[in-house]
Amino acid sequence: MGIVEEAHNVKVLGSGDRVTVLAHGFGTDQSVWKHLVPHLVDDFRVVLFDNMGAGTTNPDYFDFNRYATLEGYAFDLLAILEELRVESCIFVGHSVSAMIGAIACISRPDLFSKIIMMSASPRYLNDVDYYGGFEQEDLDQLFEAMGANYKSWCSGFAPLLVGGDMESVAVQEFSRTLFNMRPDIALSVAQTIFQSDMRQILSLVTVPCHILQSVKDLAVPVVVSEYLHQNLSSESIVEVMTSDGHLPQLSSPDIVIPVLLKHIRYDISTV
Amino acid sequence: MRAGLSTIQQTLTPEAASVLNHSIAEASRRNHGQTTPLHVAATLLASPSGFLRQACIKSHPNSSHPLQCRALELCFSVALERLPTAQSANSGGSPALDPPISNALMAALKRAQAHQRRGCPEQQQQPLLAVKVELEQLIISILDDPSVSRVMREASFSSPAVKATIEQSLNSTSSNSANTAGPIGLGFRPVIAPASTVAAPSANRNLYLNPRLQQGAASQQRSEEVKRVIDIMMRSKKVNPVLVGDSEPELIVKEILRKIESKEIDGVLRNVEVVHVEKDFTLDKTQMVAKIKELSTKVGAMIGNLDCGGVILDLGDLKWLVENHQAIGLAGGVKQQQQTVLEAGRAAVVEMGKLLGRFGEGSARVWLIGTATCETYLRCQVYHPSMESDWDLQAVPIAARAPSPGMFSRLGSNGILGCSVESLSPLKGFATTTAQPRQTSENFDPSRKTGCCPQCMQNYKQDLAKLLAAKEFEQSSSELTRPALPQWLQNAKAHDSDVKTVDQTQTKDQEVIWTQKTQDLQKKWNDTCLQLHPNFHQPSIGSERFAPAALSMMSYNSSLLGRQPFQPKLPLCKNIGETLQLNPHLVASQPMERTSSPPGSPVKTDLVLGRPKTIEITPDRTDKERLQDFLGRIPSEPQNKLQDLQSNKLLNTSAESFKKLVKGLVEKVWWQRDAASAVATTVTQCKSGNGKWRGSCSKGDIWLLFSGPDRVGKKKMASALSDQVCGAHPFVICLGSRRDNGESDVSFRGKTVVDKIAEVVRRNPFSVVVLEDIDEADMLVRGSIKRAMERGRLADSHGREISLGNVIFILTANWMPSDLNFTSNGISLDEKKLASLASGGWQLRLSLCEKTAKRRASWLHEEDRATKPRKESGSLSFDLNEAADVEDDKAADGSHNSSDLTVDHEEHGLTNRLLSSSTSSSASHELLNTVDEVIVFKPADFGPIRRDISNLITKKSCNIIGNKVTIEIVDEALEKITSGVCIGRTGLEEWTEKALVPSLRQLKTQMPTSEESLVVRLELDSESCNRSHGDWLPSSVKVVC
């Protein structure tokens, strides 16, 4: 097993001609796809991996400089694809990973046949003519809380983000993976993500994008998906799902999995 | 020694020679006895934008701060200070001779030369003088010098790492094919230093890899360093190591101490206690002396213990001796503080010295171990000069980790995107500097010059290809043992010196055999050619060639040019293809011929450009032109050379060569006369350094934008230009949606357009590259191209940058400046239609027949064309230009291109289109401004072209057969000829001379003498169709009586 595969806990499951890469977002790891994977393994080669900084990765490998921008993660993604000699893949990116995929596909459009963006946002901060859902003060408070007491921040943040009560399985699950992260790394990752502004690159994307979005999501307002649709230079399609929360694949798999499967299996013209 | 020097300088390229000169001057200034590699290194480092400096910065794994280089400079200047000065010679005050070159430097120069010769792959051993040592090679061999390495180590730079960086940059710009074919490139050298041990496990390293993941690889290096430190501690003098370096030396100390504490080490270090003292000292400087005294007692007690074999004092980072943390932020009193720190430090040094002295003897010893950054250690040396000897210290430089993985290692914080593209390429600084000399040297490769006529050349190439295939197979099979790598990594691996050392000798042998084989093959074909086609080798058309090297040689002894008499020997060599096997004698003699030959006598500089595969020698190209081409490429105009070594000023364009170029272009594309002359003007101007952007920096690349709807004309012009300038086909890359030509190379599949361009440029640094339909290219591609224009370098999608070399780029677009008046009322040239007409292996015949009363009025008439059944009637319509039918279907601007009555309408529509396209993409405007010249192609009509052709044919036949017999050209035939001329590469004149004229002559001999009523008919010959595929025009015309 290569060094990259090991470091990112890469798992390749299933069989098929086509490759689907599932990339998790902030505070989770590849287990976030557990409801989806069983439906894919018959038709696809499914690549699962953990982003650097996730609780399941070795914190020694987390280079704060490298991961100060999303490009660091994009390089990791490309490294994995190169290592596995993937020639073309369907990339499913959740949350920040959707943007990571977008960056990577600008660099290597040949590697991506399409990108499925789940709960993606090019920018979380509000701006003139742009509604991202957060004000700088919100974020400052968030970072402060993270730095002050990570544990309690986790237990507060998880239900908010997942959109359920503390007792629900999804929230428990998310809290677990979130708390698995080393606090300083989590803070750095969160800062990188929430301060990122990927609006400029949207016009450089040439790979078809499927934008999936929960109707109610604390982190990503629904208008953002429309913004993506408008600003991506490639073909794109938006589907707003009736699910709730930022991690709908975990919290409402019954709604989300069929939609995801549909978008993985069919291209924009046939969806 | 003086004589030696001038000989040496002749083996160097101008840049390298000037570095050497500066070094000698520096040595002389410092009054040194000899010029050593240190002087050269210091000189190389001195220029702020220097190559070495950048390589040093890049090679440094942790920091790319320029300050690092400052430290390096300091170290070098210290090292230079230490050199002995010349004792006697200069004391007289007379400006004595320059300090001679030291043996070490001489060795380095020889190494450089050897590497340079070896660095040129796939060729026979070159004559010694034909190889010029490039700056990069000089740097590399200077880095190999032990004294230089040592100084670099002192400044915590690893010379192997720096070397690796340079080699990487060299390889990345040098010809790809050569490097992938056989690992005999520049990286082909055993690297002795630790860097290579790191490189080994990383053979299949991923370009995008997180550098942190390579820590495993580093551990090996670390263990070596641990061993070195322990060796130091075991010896009897200078036993106290200080690990100097910026790459976490404390980790190594930790490792050593762990080993010692866990008793893993035998010998004197077996029963040794470790005391960590750093913490005691960092907090309060004033207490340091007291602390050390305390420590001394403690150590005494420990040693008193019988079990104890000694004590190691871990001093930690020595910065506590020279820095004061408390001082930070206190504006006032900083100096004061600093003073006290220094005093305290001095006292501490003395006290520690005492401690060591006290326990220095006896069975139990006391060791010190510490770490320092390069800067700290330098400071220690400055502020506490006695410390090194008092403490019995030995500085152990900790080599920076090898940078080879680090193509992207610092990329995390940089970017893939937007403006940060620049940062994507760590080699950016190098690209331009390296590429130029490399490409020049590629021309020096004599194996690529073959003295054959095109036909034999073709055969030779085929054989060569077979050989090459066989060779590649051999190699690939030998490589099977290694893990397969993705294609893009192969390159990187080729640099991996460690892998290489293993099979170095083997490949070397293979390489020798290979060169031998190629040579034999070449010889074989040259001989065959000489026998088969003696004409080609006649002085009249045969080209007598001398290698470019000969000319640049001249630059050093141009004074000879005037004097030397014509060498009578030359005609002997002239006709022989073997002349190419350049030898020093010819080098000396041939330039003579050039200057002494009377004007107009055929002296040819056949510069073979690009890959051999694409070479086609056009024998009728004029000497001047060739010489011009050649001089345009090599920035060494002999006459100026001595006065102005640095100057890249190219030969002034002589009006004559310009005219030749125009003539060549006009001959092929006569219907675009204005455009042809514009192209010629721009190209000659740019080559002489007067291009739009050539004011300050001279770039070899030329950018032309062919705009206008005459697709065929643009294509033909590009091909003609390529033929004139490089004697080869242009490389055509389509940026738009049009994919009609079957030129899609298999190797390009799955590559982005920019990668394709990069690939082509990399392989053919002297060529014409046509980027078709730039107006249809997507924004990304246009952006890259624009950046490439501005910067002279092209970044591919991996972020690797390549220099554009001397490529002439031709962008084609359908835009027209909107103010252009159209004067078209004929049929536009439709490429597809022409192609379908010209294809099909048609033949022509000339026949005699009775003059009929019902002669066609005019073959120019279009009416019968309309009656012909056509599939693509839409495209046949009388549209003004092709632009209209490209995408306009969607545009729905009301234009239907239906008839010639709609000229105004049409024009209007076109203008609209232009407006809309230009507003929609500001990039197009930017492109217009960035290219060297925009060349407008008028919409072309089919009619006049056909008329020209028929006129010409009629004229020819009149000349040959006489006025009495008229020639009638059958419409279909004329149409086919026209299409063939337009699409193919052959010029009209050329074709008529070659194919038609002989047949006309033949016809004349067979013609009955006094037959007034005869008509010669040029028509299609349906019976024979055995024409070789690929030609658009028949090579001969059958005569039927």
Automatic annotation (TrEMBL), chain A:
What top-level branch of life does the organism fall under? Eukaryota
One Pfam family, please name it. Abhydrolase_6
| Residue span, AB hydrolase-1 domain | 21-257
The family assignment reads: Belongs to the AB hydrolase superfamily.
* Organism whose genome encodes this protein: Hibiscus sabdariffa
InterPro entries from the UniProt entry: AB_hydrolase_1 (IPR000073), AB_hydrolase_fold (IPR029058)
Higher taxonomy:
Eukaryota, Viridiplantae, Streptophyta, Embryophyta, Tracheophyta
Put simply, this protein is called AB hydrolase-1 domain-containing protein
Which SUPFAM superfamilies does the UniProt entry name for this protein?
alpha/beta-Hydrolases
Which first-to-last residue range defines the signal peptide? none
Automatic annotation (TrEMBL), chain B:
**Record's keyword annotation contains Chloroplast:** no
Q: Which Gene3D superfamilies match?
A: Clp, N-terminal domain, P-loop containing nucleotide triphosphate hydrolases
List residues of the Clp R domain.
Answer: 8-173
Q: Which SUPFAM superfamilies match?
A: Double Clp-N motif (SSF81923), P-loop containing nucleoside triphosphate hydrolases (SSF52540)
Q: Transcription as a keyword?
A: yes
Annotated region (Disordered), positions in chain: 859-878, 887-906
**Record's InterPro entries?**
AAA_lid_SMAX1, ATPase_AAA_core, Clp_N_dom_sf, Clp_R_N, NBD_SMAX1-like, P-loop_NTPase, SL_signaling_regulator
Question: Keywords in UniProt for this one?
Answer: Repeat, Transcription, Transcription regulation
For bias type Basic and acidic residues, the affected ranges are 859-873
Its family remark reads: Belongs to the ClpA/ClpB family.
- Stated name of the protein: Clp R domain-containing protein
